[in-house]
User: Fold this.
Amino acid sequence: MDTADNLMLKFLQKFDENPFLIKTKGKEHLIGAGEPIFTVEFKKPLSLSELTNSTSLALGEAYMKGDLIIEGDLYKALDSFLGQREKFSTNTGLLKKLLFTSTRKKNQLKEVSSHYDIGNDFYKLWLDETMSYSCGYFKNENDSLYNAQINKIDYTLKKLYLKEGQTLLDIGCGWGYLLITAAKKYKIKGLGITLSKEQQKEFQKRIKEENLENYLEVELMDYRDLQSLDRKFDRIVSIGMLEHVGRKNYDKFIKTAKKILNPGGLFLLHYISALKEFDGDPWIKKYIFPGGVIPSLREIENLFGEYNFHTLDIENLRNHYTKTLLCWNRNFHDNLNEISKKFNSEFIRMWEMYLCSCAAIFHNGVVDLHQILVTNGINNNLPITRWY
Assistant:
């Protein structure tokens, strides 16, 4: 065995909480003690500098290229490995341009488009019929992905305590199913904003198909431009969008919501959260969500207090996201024949890594998923129990 193999093995020996087997150049090496949970084969060794500069990038890129092969279930392997995420090495100075991208409008539009404008046809292959690209809500163990997304939307709208004729703004509206449901069920007037041209196009199509032109509209718009509309709303919802705002702009995001929400209005914020502030994962930021940052719960709650938003409810849906991601991964694999007509093997392995690694980090509590419900100032006219 040469020096590169030895250095790689020495580095990986610290990930010993759950045993796994490494194969390299025809030889096997057990990491940890006991029966190995999974086996990883290195077609060629990773250099020590690659692993220390960014363990995440080194392993993720090797998997994408086929230089690293996981034998067996990818999710189970990652689930047993990524609980040790704190042992990863990241050279922040070297990766500064990757980790800390510009939060200017032009750059954030480019970053969002790089992920969400891959094509509606692609997302339709593995999302459910609602085209919901966020955490579902599994009321029952055997709920389908579609039912879980319907549950999530109904649950979210109930928290918003909607009444006919009210106005609802959805910041980061995706393909629009939440607003469509709100308009049909509660007869609200809704505006959705997104930075994705593909999402806007699909949402506009759905509005026409549902004959909801008098209730709903969708704009290609940055949240920072909302004040220019000179409009106020009774309710605001934002699902899975705060992660794209950037730490420098959290204050601006909350301040914008404050200015456009009527006094006593409700604001429901649904986002991937963390126990502590961190700069993000290099591999995810390079290949999946450029510029993405996961806020901590405490920093967002602190900002709510600064703007006189009163917190009514905080709920953690972490385990629901694990199940959602595993459903997406299963759908992705069920449609590999169609997906392979659109994308090459490296993209497919990248997307597999994305879905399975995210499921694993939610399962291991590396990140959480919180829904926070707040009021703009005091509102004493709401029911006094969560289950209204």
In short: The mean pLDDT is 96.
